[in-house]
Amino acid sequence: MATEGKNLSEYDKNTIPNAKDFRFGIVVSEWNEEITEGLFQGAFDAFIENGVKKENIVRWNVPGSFELIYGCKKLQQTFDMLDAIIAVGSVIQGETKHFDFVCEGVTQGIKDLNIQGDIPVIFCVLTDNHIEQSRARSGGKHGNKGTEAAIAAIKMAQLRKDADFYKG
Ligand SMILES: Nc1c(NC[C@H](O)[C@H](O)[C@H](O)CO)[nH]c(=O)[nH]c1=O
Ligand SMILES: CC(=O)[C@@H](O)COP(=O)(O)O
């Protein structure tokens, strides 16, 4: 189902693990700040609504979505007690193929961080044709992808905790 057929902000609270002891990082791209601030707020609010303590949420900013890769890598290394990280970005098609390379680079880079690192990195990067699509997905008619990302982060933090428990 495409985003068009669902609301990114809707979730069943009964399926969300207890997040009160989890610690999260959010790395936010400054490109398309109107959009990325909306995504950040959606994620932050969802964390608080699900019991995460404000003091357990750390935010770093990076210049653009391509820098999310390095920023998330350094956050993993610097705060190794984090339970999950969200990478927040907004890439909007321009006149050239740059959009394609930024989107592909960020996607592959964040994928690599999930393979190489031990802290899950959640992909909260909008890749839109125009800003109206971005607005619709960062608190507009389709909800907020930041909310969706926070829920994913909580679920992956719980999966990681369960895996470590079973590993002993
Ligand atoms: N056009 C967009 C960019 N471009 C900048 C790159 O992300 C990067 O910062 C630059 O190439 C220097 O390494 N970034 C976005 O996040 N969104 C865009 O629409
Ligand atoms: C995603 C981008 O880098 C893009 O917005 C840059 O715009 P342009 O392709 O017109 O240089």
From TrEMBL:
<feature type="binding site">
    <location>
        <begin position="65"/>
        <end position="67"/>
    </location>
    <ligand>
        <name>5-amino-6-(D-ribitylamino)uracil</name>
    </ligand>
</feature>
<dbReference type="InterPro" id="IPR036467">
    <property type="entry name" value="LS/RS_sf"/>
</dbReference>
<keyword id="KW-0686">Riboflavin biosynthesis</keyword>
<dbReference type="GO" id="GO:0009349">
    <property type="term" value="C:riboflavin synthase complex"/>
</dbReference>
<dbReference type="InterPro" id="IPR002180">
    <property type="entry name" value="LS/RS"/>
</dbReference>
<comment type="function">
    <text>Catalyzes the formation of 6,7-dimethyl-8-ribityllumazine by condensation of 5-amino-6-(D-ribitylamino)uracil with 3,4-dihydroxy-2-butanone 4-phosphate. This is the penultimate step in the biosynthesis of riboflavin.</text>
</comment>
<feature type="binding site">
    <location>
        <position position="137"/>
    </location>
    <ligand>
        <name>(2S)-2-hydroxy-3-oxobutyl phosphate</name>
    </ligand>
</feature>
<protein>
    <recommendedName>
        <fullName>6,7-dimethyl-8-ribityllumazine synthase</fullName>
        <ecNumber>2.5.1.78</ecNumber>
    </recommendedName>
</protein>
<feature type="binding site">
    <location>
        <begin position="90"/>
        <end position="92"/>
    </location>
    <ligand>
        <name>5-amino-6-(D-ribitylamino)uracil</name>
    </ligand>
</feature>
<dbReference type="GO" id="GO:0009231">
    <property type="term" value="P:riboflavin biosynthetic process"/>
</dbReference>
<dbReference type="Pfam" id="PF00885">
    <property type="entry name" value="DMRL_synthase"/>
</dbReference>
<dbReference type="GO" id="GO:0005829">
    <property type="term" value="C:cytosol"/>
</dbReference>
<dbReference type="InterPro" id="IPR034964">
    <property type="entry name" value="LS"/>
</dbReference>
<comment type="pathway">
    <text>Cofactor biosynthesis; riboflavin biosynthesis; riboflavin from 2-hydroxy-3-oxobutyl phosphate and 5-amino-6-(D-ribitylamino)uracil: step 1/2.</text>
</comment>
<keyword id="KW-0808">Transferase</keyword>
<comment type="similarity">
    <text>Belongs to the DMRL synthase family.</text>
</comment>
<dbReference type="GO" id="GO:0000906">
    <property type="term" value="F:6,7-dimethyl-8-ribityllumazine synthase activity"/>
</dbReference>
<feature type="binding site">
    <location>
        <position position="123"/>
    </location>
    <ligand>
        <name>5-amino-6-(D-ribitylamino)uracil</name>
    </ligand>
</feature>
<feature type="binding site">
    <location>
        <position position="31"/>
    </location>
    <ligand>
        <name>5-amino-6-(D-ribitylamino)uracil</name>
    </ligand>
</feature>
<feature type="binding site">
    <location>
        <begin position="95"/>
        <end position="96"/>
    </location>
    <ligand>
        <name>(2S)-2-hydroxy-3-oxobutyl phosphate</name>
    </ligand>
</feature>
<feature type="active site" description="Proton donor">
    <location>
        <position position="98"/>
    </location>
</feature>
